[in-house]
Design goal:
mainly alpha; 20 helices; elongated
């Protein structure tokens, strides 16, 4: 995993830390078990229990885990550490006091107290008391400084958790050779639109862990979006070779192969993805798009229908069914599918928009206007919606409303040439309707 390099030689100095840890742990366990049961031994046993038992599932001894350093595995063990720390501190104070009050032969320095209670304290008593106070002050000051250090470090660490970016960047400093850290930075960068950094980090993750199939999948997706489909195909092929049941990688491979003009390979990749994940609406959606590209309309409709069965709110699949039926002239079927979709997703603006177009073609202007308005209520700044509403008014002979809708559409997107042409036609039509003024 890269966070902590493995010890592969007895000459590695870190092996001393391992031996010291096990020696200390063995000694503490021996204290708990070999001595007479007392309050101290019970406290020590509780501390060791909290320290060891909750950490066992994450120790990589009984189960394989995907991390080495993780704060979440220390929540309960930290309780045991705290108890052990306080126990040790108290023992240190007791040992110090005992050492000061005992001479080198183990005999207590009980100086004879002057019978006159008003007489001066003996010099040896003053020295002993000063020594005790100095020792205790030193230990207490050390504890306070340590607590202050831990408090400061906790504040610093809390600040690092404010955003994913700062958290992952900090992890990179701690574990620069950990592939998962670079993967997390890459994913965060990709989500934020920083494609260049995402590519660099995904490549680094794969370099550090040549078997990192998830990083290969994400890298392939980025390259596909950048138009580098051949390299994307190579990475996705590697991902499914490493993990043959990786359904998402198979689907993404199908998308890339479809883009490369390999419909038969793409179809097989989609089928493999569905084989490994039966309920995969996005895969059925992309399979439908593939069939649409090769003009297999029946299979396209079936694939999109399967997507909506598995995920009734799959708006893109609903839209594609409506658009296909509209394009092949089956307006009645397209209307039925649109109404079915709106029963599931009544606020889907795109479905209202497509239904408005269908109803407009059937000269059902009032109903079409209602659905266009529903679409615009959800997306008031969609230039295409305003442009098509203008066409509806244009056909409906509502010239003033049409002109207003054309104007609004072009204000939102001046690059809509078809809308501009339609607006000019409407202007010429209005000019012909204006009667000539006679002198």
């Amino acid at each position: 995993m890269g966070c902590v390099p493995l010890i592969d030689s007895v000459a590695d100095p870190r092996i001393l830390a391992v031996l010291t840890f096990w020696a200390a742990l063995t000694y503490l366990v021996w204290i708990c078990t070999a001595h007479k049961v007392s309050d101290d031994s019970r406290v020590l046993m509780m501390a060791l229990t909290f320290l060891i038992v909750p950490f066992l599932p994450a120790s990589n001894v009984f189960f394989t885990v995907g991390f080495v350093i993780a704060e979440r595995v220390l929540y309960l063990p930290s309780i045991g550490f705290t108890i052990l720390f306080i126990f040790s501190f108290r023992a240190a104070l007791a040992s110090h006091d005992k050492g000061v009050h005992t001479n080198g032969d183990g005999v207590h320095n009980n100086n004879v107290v002057n019978e006159n209670c008003f007489s001066e304290v003996a010099p040896s008593d003053r020295v002993e008391k000063a020594t005790v106070d100095a020792g205790r002050s030193f230990l207490q000051t050390s504890i306070l400084l340590l607590l202050l250090l831990f408090f400061t470090r906790s504040m610093q660490r809390s600040a690092e958790w404010r955003t994913e970016e700062t958290l992952f960047r900090t992890a990179e400093h701690v574990c620069p050779l950990n592939a998962k850290v670079h993967y997390n930075i890459g994913k965060n960068a990709g989500d934020a639109g920083n494609v260049e950094l995402a590519l660099i980090k995904y490549r680094e993750a794969v370099r550090l862990n040549p078997e990192y199939d998830q990083a290969m999948n994400n890298l392939g997706n980025l390259l596909k979006d950048l138009g580098q489909e051949k390299e994307a195909e190579q990475w996705l092929l590697k991902a499914v070779h490493i993990r043959p049941e990786f359904a998402a990688a198979w689907m993404n491979l199908g998308i890339v192969q479809a883009g490369l003009g390999q419909p038969h390979l793409a179809e097989q990749s989609y089928f493999t993805a569905i084989k490994h994940r039966r309920k995969y609406p996005d895969c059925y959606y992309n399979l439908g798009n593939l069939y649409l590209d090769i003009k297999d309309h029946n299979n396209a409709m079936q694939a999109w229908r399967n997507a909506t069965k598995l995920k009734s709110t799959h708006i893109n699949a609903w839209n594609n069914m409506i658009i296909l039926l509209d394009n092949i002239g089956k307006l009645e079927s397209a209307e039925q599918v649109a109404m079915e979709a709106l029963r599931v997703v009544p606020s889907a603006s795109s479905i209202h928009f497509h239904l408005g177009n269908i109803l407009g073609k059937a000269s059902r202007y009032k109903e079409a206007e209602k659905h266009f308005q529903e679409a615009l209520d959800s997306e008031p700044n969609n230039a295409n919606y305003w442009g098509n509403l203008a066409v509806l008014y244009h056909r409906w002979e509502k010239n003033e409303e049409a002109m207003q809708a054309y104007t609004k559409s072009l204000q939102l997107n001046p690059q809509l040439l078809q809308t501009r042409d339609n607006m000019m036609k409407l202007k010429r039509k209005i000019d012909k309707l204006v009667p000539a003024v006679t002198v």
